[in-house]
Amino acid sequence: MADHLKDNVVQTVLGPISADELGVVLPQVQILSIIPGAEFAPEIEMDQQKQYDALKVALIEYKRLGGQTIVDNGGMFKGRNVQLYRTLSKETGVHIIASTGLGPGTMVGSYFTTQQTEPPGPMPLDRLAEMFANEITKGTVIPRRERTGPAGLICTAANKDGITEFEKHLYRGSAQAALQTGAAVSIQAGKDPVYELDILEKEGLDVSRVIVGGLDSLDADERGDALTIARRGAIVALDHAGWTPNRGYVSNDRRAQLVLELFKEGLGDRVIISSNAVGYAVGHEASQIGFDHVLTSFVPMFREAGATEEQVKQLLEVNPQRILSLEGEKGLFKPEVEGVDITWVK
Amino acid sequence: MGKINTVLGPIATEQLGVTALHEHIGFGLPGCDLDTKWWEARPKMLEVTINKLRRFRELGGRTIVDCTGIGTGRDISYWQVVSRVTGVNIVPMTGFVSGDTVLPYFRDKSIEYLADLFYHEITVGIEGTNVKAGAIKAGVSRGGLSELDERVYRAAARAARAAGVPILTHLSIDADRQMDLIEMEGLSLDRIVIGHSDGKEGLDPERDFRIAERGAYVGYDTIGFDTEKGTPEVPAPFWARPKGERLDQVMNLFNAGYANRAIISCDANCFALGWASTEHSVAELLENFIPDLKDRGVSDETVKMLLVDTPASFLTMQDPQPNLVEAAKKATAQV
Hints:
The complex is a heterodimer of chains A (346) and B (335).
Chain A: E1 9-12, E2 15-18, E3 25-34, H1 48-64, E4 69-72, H2 82-92, E5 95-100, H3 110-113, H4 125-137, E6 141-142, E7 146-147, E8 151-157, H5 165-181, E9 185-188, H6 193-202, E10 210-213, H7 218-223, H8 225-232, E11 235-238, H9 252-264, E12 271-273, E13 278-282, H10 293-304, H11 309-324, E14 343-344
Parallel strand pairs in A: 3-4, 3-13, 4-5, 5-8, 8-9, 9-10, 10-11, 11-12
Antiparallel strand pairs in A: 1-2, 6-7, 7-14
Chain B: E1 3-6, E2 9-12, E3 18-23, H1 42-58, E4 61-66, H2 76-86, E5 89-95, H3 104-107, H4 111-123, E6 135-139, H5 147-163, E7 167-170, H6 175-184, E8 192-194, H7 205-214, E9 217-220, H8 243-258, E10 262-264, H9 283-295, H10 300-315, H11 323-334
Parallel strand pairs in B: 3-4, 4-5, 5-6, 6-7, 7-8, 8-9, 9-10
Antiparallel strand pairs in B: 1-2
């Protein structure tokens, strides 16, 4: 391990850093979110300069509010542009963590779901895991050319109507890649978060390395999923701050209460907060909630509800820093040529 | 007299020459670009591609139709380089190889939207370029014609009528339904090739006669995917056929007098993008298959029909009827 890194290494798009350098973290958002295929539609404008400008403004504002790190949970197939993220990170000073992974199934290309075999089937599990793990240890792919900065976690998601067979396959591949690299897995849960956590656990993954997203939905709240999941030892992501009951999520008041309940139960080390914000959406409607929302709206409300400064720090800094740290050194990014930005592949 | 769109602009029908109607510079399922297993240095890919197309030209070949639809490896600027360097005309296509290759953004789109998309690529340009598509791809998903496949067929038929280009399909599975969909949309069946009739996938030689009798073209267009070519390292794909068996199938239709309702092509990838192909090249059409046909007694006139006349009449753009897209939209709005 490089000398400047002590324990708790987190992989940003610009390379590994110590977790305590992350400061205030906004996890579970998407920086650039493109519905796969939108780039081929004549009515869609693909303009990186516009993307860059809008994202730069959003990141500078986030930084002004005290934010230091942002985590893109879009995975590898929903418009991720790590080169753009690297430029944004260099220019704004905000740490950016990118993710590998695929899902939900509706957002995946047929190379992964329906391979040219008889009978047709998904990409084999070991290859899926290898592909994700390589994005962490060798760098994320820029199609058919090079690898660039590494992914820092593995993200997947299930269909809201219930996890599909293919998505179970993605979950298993994600768990295996996590075992190979020590990176965390973040899921955006479908209908049954507990069952989905079982899938990951059955692969041998310690659930303390799993972020379960979407636990602030009305359904999850009704079932008491946040407590159940936290008691099992996984990380509860109340990651729809700013979303409303009208859109299927609890209000920020209720969200703040949920966090406090977890603290009261002694589970305050197992919760993170986010807004599922989209920095720049292409080909779909996104919520108008920005990267600023957690700091400008949720945190004041959380304090008003009785949260201590220590609890705020736990929620925004301590918990995400711990979960994003690689376990061990096996997943540490090793570019093929040390100190060179470009890793040509072929 | 007539016009055909290529990646280097429209050409006259008479410039087509010997044409392979169903080929690929490189095909790969959406997402394969992210798997480094298939990456190769671009100069190497270009070299392999150029060598195959040069051989095709040396044997008299002049034009290929690249049947790679939206999102499966279609790469206009690269194809322009390939066309310039080799002198082979490349006719690009709009449309989708099959419903299961349709990317998420397009999966829930209406027939009207898809027809507009195809029409745009034929009349305005592909992916922001001014290169216009010369034909439309539609096809059958693994497991049979799906609801999304049917939307693509209907949209393809509407855009084909409106813009005057023909349709080529991936697979002959559910051929009768494919043809029904085309007719329902008012497109004449002589504007469609029902593809891969000679492939192992869903093979049904009786079906060839139904396709021919209804006036569509039978696509004998996986020539060279021979089971004999399989090796332990690269097994023959599941759609491969024993070479002689394919020839028997083709000769049966020809001997029944339907050579004028067939097309021949290889479906070869110059450089496959997301799968392992056995050795294969469009040049095999002229190098192996035509000699095989002649050995079986096929005349020079029939060979010329297969290689030149049928492709020319099929690809030549017919009178465009742009009002048809609008009319179909209005009709749908009223329902």
